[in-house]
Design goal:
The structure is a single chain. This protein is mainly alpha-helical. It has a domain at 23-64. Helix content is 67%, strand content 0%. α3 (34-40) runs parallel beside α4 (52-63). The longest helix is centred in the first third of the chain and has 18 residues, at 2-19. The chain starts with a helix and ends with a helix.
């Protein structure tokens, strides 16, 4: 029983890089639509003509 819990815990810890917070932020943002990216940039002017890559760069810049 204890070995099963240890194994499950180890499995969860090893899955964090692929499923969790260590995932590449840029790749996650590129999967969003332009509308979702623009909603993240509320209050920023002159974003209507930007393409997705430019929007992602701007979101990352705003977060830091």
């Amino acid at each position: 029983m204890v070995s099963m819990l240890v194994f499950e815990s180890l499995e969860i810890l090893l899955s964090i890089p692929t499923k969790g917070f260590l995932k590449n932020r840029r790749m996650m943002l590129l999967k969003k639509t332009n509308k979702e990216l623009k909603n993240m940039l509320v209050g920023v002017k002159k974003i209507s003509n930007l393409n997705k890559v430019q929007l992602v760069d701007l979101v990352i810049a705003q977060a830091t």
